[in-house]
Structure formats: structure tokens, C-alpha cells
Amino acid sequence: MAPISSSKKGSEVEVKDDIWSDLLSSLQTRTTSRGNKTVIMLGTPKGGKSTLVSKIMDPKDTERVDSTPGVAFNYITVRDEEKERIGQIGIHSTSYKHFLPQVLTKERMYNSMAVIVLSLEKPWNLEEELLYWTSLLEEHIKTLQISDREMAKLRQNVVDLFSTYKSPEEKKKKK
Question: pTM of the predicted model, to two decimals?
Fold first, then answer.
């Protein structure tokens, strides 16, 4: 498409960028300005990660979900009240520690949440499983070489999110 030009009081002003590229770029910036987020689900094989993901994606789905071998990836498109796409949540789930470096990188760390899914099939193993996954996650995060200052900021962000959380019902009451 040719550049757009307009004249104002005899002098011509030329717009060098393609208007459609600008429009698409601004929409993409708007879409990603709130960012794409990542949820990382960790837990033992057949612990319920796939079932939990399927319920997040479609709460009305009652079908039994088969266990996923290795690592699985799903995503949810987030939309606003006008049904406009405002972001995406990628959901990675794995039962194997060697997939963690691929799904939790330093770049993703700032927009990620880890969920540890524990199976109640053997309740006597809950503490051991939780300690295993939390220590694995802690050790991996150390390898990302995030400064102490940045880690403190990330921790404070989590505290702030929890302390200022309002349920959708509370938000509607205030309107």
C-alpha cells in the first residue's frame, strides 16, 4: 500500500509508515500490553493436572481426561467484556523435572505462576511430594540468575495481588 499524504496550507506532509501496519501494530501492542501469561502445573504422573486443565478450559465438560505423558501445552484466550482478545494464558503441565527449564525461563518468570498439583490417592505422600516440587522449583529459579532485588520485587507483587484481590461479586457491588 502506498504511503498516505495530505496537504495543509500548501505544504505536503507525508506519512512514511503504512497505515495498516500501524493499526495492526497498535492492536497487537494493546493485546500484548497486558501480556500473555504462563501457568506451569507440576505434579506426579496421574496426579490430576490434565483434569484440572480441562476444567479450567471448560468447566461444563464432564468427560474423563486421560493422563498426558511428558509435557502438555494448552492455552486460554482471555477476552474483555466486549469479547475483544486481550491476552492469552499458556498452560504447561509436566510430571518430569527435565521439562522445567524449557517452560520456565528467565523471560517467562515475570509473567508466570507455578501450580503444584498433589494427588490424594496416597495422602501419606502429600508432604513429601510438596517438598519435592517446591525444592525443585526453588533450585531451578536459582539457575535463572535473577537478582535479589528483582526476586524481592516479584515476591512483593504476589503479596500485593493477594492482599488487594476483590472477587467479581465485590467489584459488581461497588459499581
Answer: 0.69
